[in-house]
Automatic annotation (TrEMBL), chain A:
It is found in: Cell inner membrane. This is Peptide/nickel transport system ATP-binding protein. GO terms for molecular function: ATP binding. NCBIfam families: oligo_HPY. Keywords: ATP-binding, Cell membrane, Membrane, Nucleotide-binding, Transport. It comes from Aminobacter niigataensis. It is a peripheral membrane protein. It holds the Pfam family ABC_tran.
TrEMBL record, chain B:
Signal peptide: none annotated. Gene3D superfamilies: MetI-like (1.10.3720.10). This is Peptide/nickel transport system permease protein. It is found in: Cell membrane. It comes from Aminobacter niigataensis. The keyword Iron does not apply. InterPro entries: BPD_transp_1_N (IPR045621), MetI-like (IPR000515), MetI-like_sf (IPR035906). The lineage of its organism: Bacteria, Pseudomonadati, Pseudomonadota, Alphaproteobacteria, Hyphomicrobiales. Residues 95-304 form the ABC transmembrane type-1 domain. Pfam families: BPD_transp_1, BPD_transp_1_N.
TrEMBL record, chain C:
The lineage of its organism: Bacteria, Pseudomonadati, Pseudomonadota, Alphaproteobacteria, Hyphomicrobiales. The chain crosses the membrane at residues 24-47, 88-112, 132-158, 200-217, 255-275. PANTHER family: OLIGOPEPTIDE TRANSPORT SYSTEM PERMEASE PROTEIN APPC, PEPTIDE ABC TRANSPORTER PERMEASE PROTEIN. Residues 84-272 form the ABC transmembrane type-1 domain. It is a multi-pass membrane protein. This is Peptide/nickel transport system permease protein. Belongs to the binding-protein-dependent transport system permease family. It is found in: Cell membrane.
Length: 349, 313, 287
């Protein structure tokens, strides 16, 4: 029950054994002169050992900023202004990433937590061979020779199913396709055997067949290696394929976190329900005469992170909203033991 | 790769050909008879006629142009009547101070500009960055010859740390000669560091937010290494272009600076040639300096090959 | 739709825009002040710039002679503000010439495919000559005088403008409304002047400001070398050249004309930078 009242116990060791990462009331703001963009404003989420947590949301919901906050890779003027990011190291110790020194954070990046990005075309340095870039990662964290690192890099390319790895090691990124480059990024990220992989929309820039291949690969690697994955996406179809649990973000907050089946079967937040209604579903969306029904987009628009409403950020668009919702921001409530929601009226769903 | 090199080579040759033509035109547009101007008011018509024939000025212009090209093709830059020696040897005699002055100035300029430009971009918007922006603009406004005079006042006359002028005389050791180049190199280097700093800053700003820089950070790499190995190497190509351009500009900056410091270099030779209307020397110096510019640019195109694998294909 | 009609209502007055840009405002203020000093020199100068006074030669700066006196006892302050007249005149005239030649060449190259090859090649080759050196050679060929210095600098800097104009013209001539005008049979010269040139005002203005600055530096260099205007005519360059003989003895003879050059060139660069900031958002999108 510690989860529903995240600040009840401030001791880092409060992290349960099966939890790799827990964000507690994370706040990341971009302070530009007199204006403050509250891109992440109270995110609470949990990643379990060996499982995949999908973080879903529209663009601007703060999902990418959340993942960059965990890696502490925010660009100026973004800053973590509050909350905790409890992470369990591979040796069992628990640290708060939000307050860790830069030096200790560098030792964690790549080795404990690795990240892959949305744009495979630009995420690799064009001036170095693929092999060099993987070997660089390994040698940053492990005292091994170039020769050994090269053998490891070659093994990583095999692991991500890149054909002719010896030849590929000496190629430059521009000689590869987008899908191939994303495989290289995965090989790079997994080269030091991290406990947590953060994947920020890793398939969004790829076409559908390549996307399916990459998802297959990530699932297989997770089975074999056992790392946890935090998978950021705006695509609920992808979520269904890869996630064990789902956290739905809206206007800088997690509004609902639940196991994937629970969430799809019975969303306990009106926003999630609205999102699910937008997915084209072959069976459900056919009317009796066989014509396609209109999708149901959510009316209204996401509030600006520069001026969030006082109460529930979704209230202005919510069919269930009442006066209380507009004045008091909802706590993270337990709809069921494993199902958390930030909705005062979740009982009605 | 071969195609790239051939393309550049062809581009270089066309520019060089046009340069040769322009030089030919410039020297021929001179109002009046160059032979008469060269010999001065005391010359007899017979003397002038002899010189005209010797310079080929009695021929029609197209013939002169063909002779000119043929002469250049043989590597002959002409003959200076005043110096009574081939222009090529005159230039070669004066090459040493100019060569080292340019090299030192480029080294000083880069040593200032690269770290300052990188830091300025990295600390964008900070007090340091604003100060750098202001100072580069100031440095770009200073005439190098004026800075040279100020340096002479302070470091040569007042403190006596460096020689005031000259190149140490005919028997000076290499070290003595180089000590005469310190102040002029600083004057030129400081002034030309402004442009390189600005370019370094701008092209670093372009790459600092690139995705691969973030990837490098996500590997757990230290900032210094992220900046130098990943960002700076990508920013280097436009910066190299400017350094090459500056090197070429320095050759001309040297024209003025050599005069300030009375260095017996190419610049000095050109100025005295202009003052006494020694057209073959002016023409030869123009050609050689433009050729150096074109060659440096070609060299930089080849450097790209080494830095950027994308150019190789 | 509101956005489309808004600019005419909301566009702040130009003066407000300029004042908002600190660098532009400061640069303009300095350059205007310098120009006024030069133009009004006969009213402001405490002494005649050419009044000799052997007793007062090489006097250091004082309340009598703000900037000291030169080797002939002439007042350096008076000479400095008088010299501004010619220095600014040469810079402005060279810029005007460079603009006329450069814009014409650039438009021709950008608009007529056949001419582009030759003109571009000449532009490239001209840029292969360092500016001072080319100017020296041209002055040498034409014979040194005030007019030839202006012509030489105009020729030297024309290719820079031509390059900018050519690049922009290549883009603009493909824009739908220019193609439409062509399809409607509007004469080419009219398209060039009405549609293309009007869109090029910003980049030309920015570039011309910088050329003004470079031309002033180059003029000072030529005068310093003695291959520019006659040494008897006071320009900042000739004044520094004269002071060179007295380095360590009468440093004020070089320092103050040098400050005048630096301040003028700096203010021009501030204006150029400020203008670019002011005009660039649109430029960058269009080019």
């Amino acid at each position: 029950m510690a989860m529903s009242t995240p600040n009840a116990d401030n001791h880092p060791d409060a992290l349960a054994d099966d939890i790799v990462l827990r964000a507690e009331d994370l706040r990341t703001h971009f302070i530009m002169g007199t204006r403050t963009a509250k891109s992440v404003d109270g995110v609470t989420l949990t990643v379990r050992r060996g499982q995949t947590l999908a973080v879903v949301g529209e663009s601007g919901s703060g999902k990418s900023v959340t993942s960059l906050s965990i890696m502490r890779l925010l660009s100026h003027p973004g800053r973590i202004v509050g909350g905790r990011l409890l992470y369990r190291m591979r040796d069992g110790g628990v640290v708060d990433l939000a307050t860790l020194s830069d030096k200790r954070m560098r030792a964690i990046r790549g080795k404990e937590i690795a990240m892959i990005f949305q744009e495979p075309m630009t995420s690799l340095n064009p001036l170095y061979t693929v092999g060099d870039q993987i070997m660089e990662m390994i040698r940053l964290h492990e005292p091994i020779s170039r020769h050994e690192a090269r053998i490891r890099a070659r093994r990583m390319l095999e692991l991500v199913e890149i054909p002719a790895p010896d030849k590929r090691l000496d190629q430059y990124p521009h000689e590869m396709s987008g899908g191939m480059r994303q495989r290289v990024m995965i090989a790079l990220a997994l080269a030091c055997n991290p406990a947590l992989l953060i994947a920020d929309e890793p398939t969004t820039a790829l076409d559908v067949t390549i996307q399916a291949q990459i998802l297959d690969l990530m699932r297989r690697l997770q089975r074999e290696i056992g790392m946890s994955i935090l998978f950021v996406t705006h695509n609920l179809g992808v979520v269904a394929e890869i996630a064990h649990e789902v956290a739905v973000m809206y206007a800088g907050r997690v509004v609902e976190q639940a196991p994937v089946h629970d969430l799809f079967a019975r969303p306990r937040h009106p926003y999630t329900k609205g999102l699910l209604a937008c997915i084209p579903d072959a069976k459900r969306d056919r009317a009796e005469d066989g014509t396609r029904k209109m999708l149901n987009p959510i009316p209204g628009s996401v509030p600006s992170v520069l001026a969030l409403p006082a109460g529930c950020a979704y209230a202005p668009r919510c069919p269930l909203a009442e006066a209380h919702c507009e004045s008091v921001p909802p706590d993270l409530l337990n709809a069921s033991p494993e199902h958390l929601t930030r909705c005062w009226r979740h009982e009605l769903l | 790769m071969t195609r790239y090199v051939l393309q550049r080579l062809f581009g270089m040759l066309t520019v060089m050909f046009t340069v040769v033509t322009i030089v030919f035109v410039i020297v021929r547009v001179a109002p009046g008879d160059p032979a008469a101007v060269m010999l001065g008011p005391d010359a007899t018509p017979a003397d002038i006629e002899v010189l005209r024939v010797r310079l080929g000025l009695d021929q029609p212009l197209p013939i002169q142009y063909v002779y000119f090209l043929a002469q250049l093709a043989r590597g002959d830059l002409g003959h200076s009547i005043f110096l009574d020696m081939p222009v090529a040897s005159a230039l070669l005699d004066r090459a040493e101070p100019t060569f080292f002055l340019t090299i030192f100035a480029i080294l000083i300029a880069s040593a200032i500009a690269l770290p300052v430009g990188i830091m300025s971009a990295y600390k964008r918007g900070s007090f340091f960055d604003q100060a750098v922006t202001t100072l580069t603009m100031l440095a770009a406004s200073i005439p190098s010859f004026w800075l040279g005079l100020i340096l002479i006042q302070v470091f040569a006359v007042r403190f006596g740390w460096f020689p005031v002028a000259g190149y140490g005389g005919p028997d000076a050791s290499f070290l003595t000669r180089m000590s005469h180049l310190v102040l002029p190199a600083v004057a030129l280097g400081v002034v030309s560091s402004a442009l390189i700093t600005r370019f370094t800053r701008a092209s670093m700003l372009d790459v600092l937010n690139d995705d691969y820089v973030r990837t490098a950070r996500s590997k757990g790499m230290g900032e210094f290494r992220v900046i130098m190995k990943h960002a700076f190497k990508n920013a280097l190509i436009p910066v190299l272009t400017v350094i090459g351009l500056t090197a070429a500009l320095l050759v001309s900056g040297a024209v003025v600076t050599e005069t300030v410091f009375s260095l017996p270099g190419v610049g000095n030779l050109v100025v005295s040639a202009v003052l006494r209307r020694d057209y073959p020397v002016i023409q030869g110096a123009l050609l050689v300096i433009a050729a150096i510019y074109v060659l440096i640019n070609f060299g930089i195109d080849l450097l790209y090959l080494m830095i950027d694998p994308r150019v190789r294909y | 739709m509101a956005a489309a009609s808004a600019p005419s209502v909301d566009t702040p007055r130009i003066s407000t825009l300029i004042l908002q840009r600190k660098t532009l405002a400061i640069g303009l203020a300095i350059i205007v002040a310098i120009t006024l000093l030069a133009v009004l020199a006969p009213l402001i100068a405490p002494y005649s710039p050419s009044k000799l006074s052997i007793v007062n030669r090489l006097k250091p700066p004082s309340s009598t002679w703000f900037f000291g006196t030169d080797e002939f006892g002439r007042d350096v302050f008076s000479r400095t503000i008088y010299a501004g007249q010619l220095s600014l005149l040469v810079g402005a005239a060279a810029t005007a010439l460079a603009a006329t030649v450069g814009i014409t060449l650039g438009l021709v190259a950008g608009f007529f495919r056949k001419a582009d090859g030759i003109v571009s090649r000449i532009i490239d080759a001209m840029m292969a000559f360092p500016d001072i050196l080319l100017a020296i050679a041209l002055v040498a060929a034409l014979g040194p005088s005030l007019a030839t210095v202006i012509i030489a600098l105009g020729v030297v800097y024309a290719p820079r403008l031509a390059r900018v104009v050519r690049a922009s013209t290549l883009v603009i001539r493909e824009l739908p409304y220019v193609e439409a005008a062509r399809a409607l049979g509007v004469p080419t010269w009219r398209i060039m002047t009405r549609h293309v040139l009007r869109n090029l005002v910003s980049p030309i203005l920015v570039q011309a400001t910088f050329i003004f600055a470079y031309a002033m530096l180059a003029e000072a260099g030529l005068s310093f070398l003695g291959v520019g205007v006659s040494p008897e005519i006071p320009t900042w360059g000739t004044m520094i050249a004269a002071g060179r003989q007295y380095v360590g003895q009468a440093d004020w003879m070089t320092i103050f004309p040098g400050f005048a050059i630096i301040l003028t060139v700096l203010s021009l660069q501030l204006v150029g930078d400020g203008l670019r900031d002011l005009l660039d958002p649109r430029l960058r999108k269009d080019l």
